[in-house]
Amino acid sequence: MADRAADRVEFFFDLSSPWTCLAFHNVKAVRQRTGAAIRWRPILVGGVFNAVNPAVYAAREQSDNRKLQHSWKILDDWAALAGVAMHFPSKYHPAKSVAAMRFCCALEDDQAALEAFAGAAFDAYFGRQENLDDPDVMAREANSVGLDGAAIKAASGQDDMKARLRANTEEVIARGGYGSPTIFVDGNDMYFGNDQMPLVEAALMREKGTA
Question: Average of pLDDT values for 112-123?
């Protein structure tokens, strides 16, 4: 459970979401401007969709879905604005992210390490179109940011990491979340998605009495 007194922002995320990749990049700029600490919370977004947002799957099956088709253009526009490499969808889409998110859970108690790993994993999947659900790829990405990929891979397969991923996913659902990223400011002020990042920043500044 996050220490909400210390971490004003909780960022529930799944590495398979392109919008989360953008929000991960953009929320760090919000942190820099506001001084608000962030706690990264790994979840399995498929579990969230299955529980409370199955319409996502139906939309993907509609080949003539204009909103979905236009979203790829908007995604590219956001990526260009943020300066983030975005090659999506890749041959692995829709990606399974169970292995990657268990890696994240194995790092959750070391937030700096989790942030570094998540950044590398996002770049691997969206920048270079590598397989997010391959534990060996994830171990290599962990190594690339100075972590022990083999040790994290071993830890990620343990029952306690599987349980943590389930618990985090169940928590975000219980708190009203319906996808990734789900962002909470000061415990119960919920926001969703990259496009709501200005609202997250406004909430943080409002609480500081500067907005």
Answer: 98
